[in-house]
Design brief:
The complex is a heterodimer of chains A (318) and B (300).
Chain A: H1 2-11, H2 13-30, H3 35-40, H4 47-57, H5 63-75, E1 81-82, E2 87-88, H6 89-124, H7 129-143, H8 146-160, H9 176-210, H10 213-220, H11 225-262, H12 267-276, H13 280-308, H14 310-317
Antiparallel strand pairs in A: 1-2
Chain B: H1 2-6, H2 24-33, H3 36-53, H4 55-58, H5 91-127, H6 129-140, H7 147-158, H8 162-189, H9 192-199, H10 204-225, H11 227-240, H12 252-259, H13 267-295
The chains are: A mainly alpha (318), B mainly alpha (300).
């Protein structure tokens, strides 16, 4: 039973991946931007040059055929060639993706641990001072632009106190202290929105569960607060688990802004420099890689749901 | 309840003494007026809007005209209250005029996507079947992307500019709005008055327009009001990345990007455009929360 459910969820990934590939193909070829003009630069006006380049890049084929060829190359792992950087896109992305994973991972740990902790504390006694303070903090975290928070952190810890380096990344191999000193500010700036959203979702799903009948039964049985929290947490877990999957997506998206500010050499920074250089192929391949990562992460979360949550199993088999 | 109704004062009764039904929106208005947090955030929103629109009246400085002799003056300078930017342009003037672009770039996508998303969701829920599957599967594709990245991709493909950011954020917001509209419409479409209208010979268009839309307005309004803060932050984020309105036009996100190089020289001035984005976004988010409570809509 479990196997069938998981297989069904696995199959659902295929249309999602195809959908993503179509959207990105449409971005590259169909939207009114002119990739040829960008590549040709000053010679863009010469129709002969244009025709040669269009032929080399396969732009003279009909659209559906172009799509299939592009998809075929993707499946063999060929992400294209950046004519702006004269470099294989796959190699550029391969070098950057691990660094973004470090930053997003650190942001996820900070954001989820703080957010779930605050949300749980707030849900314990709704309406009290602590709950109100957490709600205020959550809405602040959700509203603060990460790129501004990053600049504020630089003003405080780099310009004024001179405690932390304002930009760049250090390899873990060169010493954990330097590595952490470079990581902490971008990770915090990236995590603010996650803290806010996680605290809010955790709080509301816990409060909802606290109101259910089985909690009264548990109280009547004389269980302690801690024991009740364990039961409540188990029941609220699915909603929180789903949100964790989404949060990692936000962190990947936010990385563009945060990496730009802190000159963190990851995918986000790659996308920013590609925007400045109008390097469309690099932008779209990076987006493709991130979207596929995002789909696979959500797949993992859903698989966990199926394993962890008996209600999902019953619902899906009904 | 019955006792209270018997005691209802005369001004709440009509000419034959029956109790007037209280308007839903009037009740909502009263609840909002009694909520100091709602009033406070509304006041902040009004002040920000007013100062953006009234910018020409509030400052005599030209937001585009700088002076090489007055670059990066600190906050509190004699002739420039909020200092000057890296080209010697008056910061207060740039922040005030900047509000026009930043607010427009954030609010326009919410308005457009609300209109389009509501129609998509209502049509999908009313017709169901193949129509619903086609429309909603198309919407689902966008959920495979982190929202901000999808917006970045679209804006980059369209080329930098105010219109690109508005189109990009609109496209990203349509699917979630249509999902909310879909679930709200599903609850309304089974009501007897919809069936009655259908039996009475109303066309699908008439039913959607007169029976469905007015009854799904509240949850959609609450949901989309919560998107404004997010849209303003996203729009200024796109400008920060160089995808929005181009310099020298004042726009909060773009200002933050061009000024961040001066963070060691004039940190207080550099922080100002971001402060505007932050305060605007907080005010809209708090106001939206209060609206949700006042309209008593369960989150969808």
């Amino acid at each position: 039973m479990l196997g069938i459910l998981m297989a069904r969820r696995l199959v659902a990934v295929v249309p999602a991946l195809l959908g993503v590939s179509v959207v990105i193909f449409v971005m590259i070829r169909v939207l009114p931007g002119d990739p040829l003009a960008t590549l040709l630069g000053a010679q863009g006006s010469n129709p002969a040059d244009r025709a040669i380049l269009a032929r080399t890049l396969g732009f003279d084929e009909p659209m559906p055929l172009q799509y299939l060829h592009w998809l075929g190359r993707l499946l063999t792992g060929d992400l294209g060639f950046s004519y702006v950087r004269h470099y294989a896109v796959g190699e550029l992305i391969g070098a950057a993706i691990g660094r973004t994973a470090v930053l997003a991972g650190a942001g996820a740990v900070i954001g989820l641990v703080t957010g779930i902790g605050l949300g749980t504390a707030a849900a314990f006694r709704p309406g009290r001072l602590l709950d109100r303070a957490v709600s205020a903090l959550a809405i602040t975290g959700m509203s603060v632009p990460s790129f501004w928070l990053g600049i504020l952190l630089i003003i405080l810890f780099s310009a004024t106190l001179q405690w932390l380096p304002a930009s760049g990344m250090a390899e873990l191999a060169d010493g954990p202290a330097d590595f952490l000193a470079h990581l902490i500010m971008p990770a915090l700036a990236n995590a603010a929105i996650t803290i806010g959203l996680t605290a809010r979702t955790t709080r509301s799903s816990l409060i909802e569960t606290y109101g259910e009948d089985f909690v009264y039964t548990l109280r009547a049985k004389g269980l302690s607060d801690a024991q009740i929290l364990r039961h409540v947490a188990k029941n609220a877990a699915p909603a929180i688990l789903t949100m964790i999957g989404l949060q990692v997506g936000y962190l990947l998206g936010g990385s563009v802004l945060v990496e730009t500010i802190f000159a963190w050499p990851g995918l986000g920074n790659l996308i920013y420099t590609a925007i400045l250089a109008r390097d469309l192929i690099l932008i779209q391949s990076s987006l493709l890689v991130i979207a596929v990562t995002f789909i696979l992460l959500n797949l993992v979360v859903d698989m966990l749901q199926i394993v962890v949550n008996p209600r999902v199993r019953r619902l899906a088999s009904a | 309840m019955a006792v209270i109704e018997l005691l209802a004062p005369l001004e709440q009764r009509d000419e034959i003494g029956a109790i007037r039904p209280r308007s839903y929106y009037r009740e909502v208005g009263e609840r909002l007026r009694g909520d100091p947090v709602a009033l406070g955030s509304l006041a902040v929103v009004v002040v920000i809007f007013g100062s953006a629109i009234g910018a020409p009246l509030l400052t005599t400085y030209d937001p585009l005209q700088g002076s090489i002799l007055a670059r990066l003056l600190p906050v509190g300078s004699d002739s420039h209250i909020l200092g000057t930017d890296e080209q010697g342009r008056d910061m207060l003037a740039r922040l005030l005029y900047g509000g026009q672009l930043s607010l427009f770039a954030g609010i326009a996508p919410v308005v457009i996507s609300t209109a389009i998303g509501t129609i998509i969701g209502a049509v999908a829920a009313y017709f169901g079947g193949v129509v619903e599957t086609l429309l909603m599967r198309a919407m689902d594709v966008s959920y495979a992307f982190p929202a901000l990245l999808l917006a970045i991709g679209i804006a980059a493909a369209l080329g930098p500019g105010l219109t690109s950011t508005i189109v990009a954020i609109t496209i990203v917001l349509i699917p979630p709005v249509s999902r909310v509209a879909l679930s709200a419409t599903r609850q309304v479409v089974v009501q007897e008055y919809v069936e009655a209208a259908s039996v009475a010979g109303a066309s699908p268009r008439q039913i959607i327009q007169y029976q469905l839309l007015p009854n799904i307005a509240s949850p959609i309004f609450v949901y989309t009001s919560g998107l404004i803060g997010l849209a303003i932050v996203s729009a200024s984020g796109l400008s920060f990345l160089g995808l929005g309105s181009a310099p020298p036009a004042p726009e909060w996100g773009a200002m933050l990007n061009t000024m961040r190089g001066s963070v060691y020289v004039a940190p207080d001035v550099v922080a100002l455009p971001g402060l505007m984005i932050f305060v605007t976004s907080v005010a809209f988010n708090v106001l939206s929360d209060c609206l949700r409570d006042a309209l008593d809509v369960k989150s969808v």
